[in-house]
């Protein structure tokens, strides 16, 4: 245990619960304490039905805990109204999904720029920053392509660029390699490693031990509780 | 705000085929509305124009009948009434006309078959300007002029039917007719007149001649032809111009106000047309609501993504609302174009002048947008109620 004063943690969960009203009542998450420090690369691994998706939604402010305390960048999220939570979500969290969730009818560049629309970044700045983000994930040559013409690995890299472009405090990835073959999965994990070295805070949720082992710290979730 | 519009436009433009199908209902509705109202206005305009040509420029001024005694007039028209009228702005022509009492005298054609059998024909007196005032068309010869009038020349012009009955169809040989025992030279035959149809059956002589031969004291009536649209004005001014000392003793026959005619026709047509258009628009609105709702269900994952990227429920709702407003507006725009083309096309085929209210042309696209707004409300609310979790979980 290091006694060195760490910078304020990005994620601070204390006794967080999430119950879905029944009957029968489902206790998806029970008494979770989780702290993710700045620059950490954490993986949350667990079998399906273990509550990891629920935890992801709580972490990503897509869902409200039934009880407990959740502070994101020191902001107590429990007392926030829906509008404010949406803004916080847009500014502080970058999502990467298993199924990419790209808009098929927009170009790659527009897809990436989209993530800054609701944060209030002017259009010209959005496009400029989207270009930079795409260069960073090695897709400078695909900017004006439609997502449907890209391979799975390329699409996931677009999604990562979209998650990064708003400069979030936390990159939240939900089974990022679930839809990819091993070569493409490896490429995505390499991007994550690189981001980690650059100081980005990452939380990757997966059921795949291979993916999980790449992280600096691993947390296992079983039946709604975390095991270290 | 600008971004919202961009996002909505991109959303609409993403599925062009669907966009066209969605707008179809609104296009048809607005086209029906614009086309029918436009055609209604155009048709009403044509009816009024026919009225214009026939009667809307004709005014007749005559002395008011004196109450009680039959045939006795309250006043006498002055001989210079046409000149007085002619000074008014908006008058094209004016002339006097009078019936002459020739007793039991008959009219005969000297050179006629059977030595000229006598016919009981109406004999009338007129000023030179009458010919123009009743839009006279000559069959042959000429009408008498002011010179004939002043000199009291014994000349007559025959109405079309009068000429037929007398058996005269040419005037180059200077045929003569007898009225009673007096001979008159026929100098012209009328082909047609407008308004005062009895001229067709009459033998017409200049006022000056009638004064000498039949002691005509004053003209019976003044026929006035005005410019289009001036009839109402002239009808008010004519009595004062003719009889400044006592205009109320004159009676004026003027055409009805044009507006009254047009309004009467339009209200009948438009009630039915507007009903048809409204039904079509209702169907169009339901179409937009339906397709937008479908599109919300289809785009659940997009909605979830936008929420994850920081969109509030409000943003999602507004985007779908704006999308359906755009669809409605495009439908309205297209429908207006079709409606205008329809109106112009039908007018062209029928040789009409197309008449279209500007408010209709500019208001209809806005009506389409409004329909889109109403139709999009429920789907937009539906979209905003979608939880991002459910939206993103699906693969």
UniProtKB/TrEMBL annotation, chain A:
GO molecular function: ATP binding; ATP hydrolysis activity; transmembrane transporter activity
Sequence ranges assigned to domain ABC transporter in this UniProt record: 11-228
Domain of life: Bacteria
The keyword Membrane is assigned to this record: no
Coiled coil: none
Keywords: ATP-binding, Nucleotide-binding, Transport
Entry GO CC: membrane protein complex; plasma membrane
One Pfam family of this chain: ABC_tran
Protein name as it appears in the record: ABC transporter ATP-binding protein
Organism: Kribbella pittospori
């Amino acid at each position: 245990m290091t006694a060195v004063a760490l910078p304020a943690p990005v994620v601070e969960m204390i006794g967080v619960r999430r119950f879905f009203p029944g009957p029968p009542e489902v206790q998806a998450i029970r008494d979770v304490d989780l702290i993710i420090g700045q620059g950490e690369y954490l993986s949350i691994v667990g079998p399906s039905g273990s509550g990891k998706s629920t935890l992801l939604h709580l972490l990503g402010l897509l869902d409200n805990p039934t009880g407990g305390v959740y502070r994101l960048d020191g902001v107590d999220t429990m007392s926030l109204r829906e509008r404010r939570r949406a803004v916080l979500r847009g500014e502080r969290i970058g999502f990467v999904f298993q199924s990419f969730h790209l808009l098929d009818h927009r170009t790659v560049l527009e897809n990436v720029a989209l993530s800054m629309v609701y944060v209030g970044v002017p259009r010209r700045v959005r496009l400029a920053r989207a270009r930079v983000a795409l260069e960073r994930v090695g897709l400078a040559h695909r900017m004006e392509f439609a997502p449907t013409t890209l391979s799975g690995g390329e699409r996931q890299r677009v999604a990562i660029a979209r998650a990064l472009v708003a400069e979030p405090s936390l990159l939240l990835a939900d089974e990022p390699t679930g839809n990819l073959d091993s070569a493409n999965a490896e490429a995505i994990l390499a991007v994550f490693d690189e981001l980690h070295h650059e100081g980005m805070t990452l939380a990757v949720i997966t059921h795949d031990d291979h993916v999980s082992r790449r992280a600096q710290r691993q947390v296992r979730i079983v039946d709604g509780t975390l095991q270290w | 705000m600008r971004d919202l519009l961009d996002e909505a436009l991109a959303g609409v433009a993403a599925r062009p085929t669907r966009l066209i199908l969605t707008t179809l209902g609104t296009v048809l509705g607005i086209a029906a509305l614009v086309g029918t109202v436009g055609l209604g206005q155009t048709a009403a305009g044509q009816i009024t124009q026919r009225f214009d040509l026939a009667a809307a420029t004709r005014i007749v001024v005559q002395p008011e009948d004196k109450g009680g005694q039959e045939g006795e007039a309250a006043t006498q028209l002055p001989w210079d009434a046409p000149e007085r009228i002619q000074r008014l702005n908006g008058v094209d022509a004016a002339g006097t006309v009078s019936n002459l009492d020739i007793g039991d005298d008959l009219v005969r054609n000297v050179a006629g078959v059977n030595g000229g059998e006598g016919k009981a024909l109406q004999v009338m007196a007129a000023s030179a300007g009458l010919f123009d005032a009743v839009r006279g068309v000559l069959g042959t010869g000429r009408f008498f002029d002011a010179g004939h009038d002043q000199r009291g020349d014994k000349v007559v012009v025959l109405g079309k039917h009068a000429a037929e009955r007398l058996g005269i169809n040419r005037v180059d040989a200077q045929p003569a007719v007898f009225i009673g025992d007096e001979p008159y030279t026929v100098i012209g035959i009328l082909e047609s007149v407008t308004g005062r149809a009895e001229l067709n059956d009459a033998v017409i002589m200049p006022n000056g001649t009638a004064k000498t031969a039949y002691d005509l004291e004053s003209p019976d009536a003044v026929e006035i032809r005005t410019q289009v649209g001036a009839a109402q004005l002239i009808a008010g001014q004519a009595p004062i111009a003719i009889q400044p000392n006592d205009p109320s003793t004159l009676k004026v026959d003027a055409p009805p106000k044009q507006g009254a005619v047009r309004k009467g026709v339009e209200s009948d047509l438009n009630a039915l047309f507007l009903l048809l258009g409204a039904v079509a628009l209702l169907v169009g609105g339901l179409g937009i609501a339906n397709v937008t709702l479908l599109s919300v269900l289809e785009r659940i994952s997009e909605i979830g993504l936008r929420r994850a990227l920081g969109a509030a429920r409000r943003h999602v709702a507004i985007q779908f609302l704006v999308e359906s407003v755009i669809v409605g507006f495009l439908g309205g725009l297209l429908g207006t174009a079709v409606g205008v083309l329809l109106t112009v096309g039908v007018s062209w085929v029928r040789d009409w002048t197309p008449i279209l209210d500007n408010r209709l042309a500019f208001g209809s696209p806005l009506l389409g947008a409004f329909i889109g707004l109403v139709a999009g409300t429920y789907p937009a609310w539906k979209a905003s109620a979608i939880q991002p979790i459910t939206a993103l979980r699906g693969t």
